[in-house]
Design goal:
Helix content is about 60%, strand content about 15%. By secondary structure, it is α/β, with parallel strands linked by helices. It has one domain: ATP synthase, F1 complex, gamma subunit (Pyruvate Kinase, Chain: A, domain 1, 3-Layer(aba) Sandwich). Strands 3-2-1-4-5 form a five-stranded mixed β-sheet.
């Protein structure tokens, strides 16, 4: 049985851990508010660009762009977005597990033939896949410490160039989408080729009205596409970062509550051991007193 000193040391250690988890929860909560504000600011811009491109595509029937063209798939790239730090529950493993499932099931032939490449955004995913037999061609650890739009636009520029040159025939992004503080959903989105934009029903008379465009519609669409792709990657990174903070906040809250329960259990054990020790000492004193009387 553990001694009183051992139990007291465990209680002290758990209390110290509880203070750390509580502080990490508060830090994550503060950062999450800023991350949510960033998403709220970025998504209307991304949504409006998509709506403008959709409107122009509905009018311009003769538009053609290689970024939309489906072709025979010979080589695939997966962009895996994880966090730079741990202590966020199953956040990273959900993305890693989803990626491995896709590789083993849907893209097993590409993987076996060496025609599947990985771009790892975030330290945890990079550490995992680089130590295993995967072809990691892009490693970007530490990007979420100073997340900037320039990184998203630079990555899109590189991927666009490789898709147009035929180096990749399909590019997918795997990440956690932020739903709420307690809910994140693992999402797989196709980046290239660009999927047809959704037609969300009949447009209003004002939206459907044709205008005089300068320059022409095709040039406007071609100029908007890079902006659309940049915004798509940027909102993906913001989503993943907010989801990470929500997962860490939830995990630290659970750890704090578990520490509280463990402290209660250890205090109960401490009291039982102390009571047993006191009872033993009383019995020894009484036995000694009785022995003295008999002598």
């Amino acid at each position: 049985m553990a001694t009183l000193r051992d139990i007291k040391g465990r209680i002290k250690g758990v209390k110290s851990t509880q203070q750390i988890t509580k502080a990490m929860k508060m830090v994550a909560a503060a950062r999450l508010r800023r991350a949510q504000d960033n998403i709220i600011s970025a998504k209307p811009y991304s949504k409006k660009i998509a709506e403008m491109i959709q409107h122009l595509l509905n009018i311009e029937k003769n538009f053609s762009n290689p970024l939309f063209n489906e072709r025979e798939i010979k080589r695939i790239a997966l962009i895996v977005v994880t966090s730079d730090r741990g202590l966020c529950g199953g956040f990273n493993m959900n993305v890693i597990r989803k990626t491995e499932e896709m590789i083993k099931d849907e893209f097993s032939s590409f993987y076996q033939n060496g025609n599947l490449d990985l771009y790892c955004l975030g330290k945890k995913g990079n550490d995992y896949f680089s130590k295993r037999p995967y072809n990691v061609v892009g490693s970007y650890p530490g990007i979420f410490s100073h997340l900037k739009f320039e990184f998203a636009s630079g990555l899109i520029k590189e991927l666009t160039s490789k898709y147009l040159s035929g180096e990749f025939d399909k590019i997918l992004v795997v990440y956690n989408e932020f739903r709420s503080v307690i809910q994140q959903k693992t999402i797989v989105e196709q980046l290239f080729p660009i999927k047809p934009f959704e037609n969300k029903g009949a447009e209003t008379a004002q939206e459907a009205a044709d205008y005089i465009y300068e320059p022409d519609k095709v040039k406007i669409i071609n100029s908007l596409l890079p902006k659309h792709l940049n915004a798509q990657m940027w909102t993906t990174l913001l989503d993943s970062y907010a989801a990470e903070l929500g997962a860490r906040m939830t995990a630290m809250d659970m750890a704090t509550e578990n520490a509280k329960e463990l402290i209660r259990s250890l205090n109960l054990t401490f009291n039982k051991v102390r009571q047993a020790s006191i009872t033993k000492e009383i019995l020894e004193i009484v036995s000694g007193a009785n022995a003295l009387k008999e002598s």
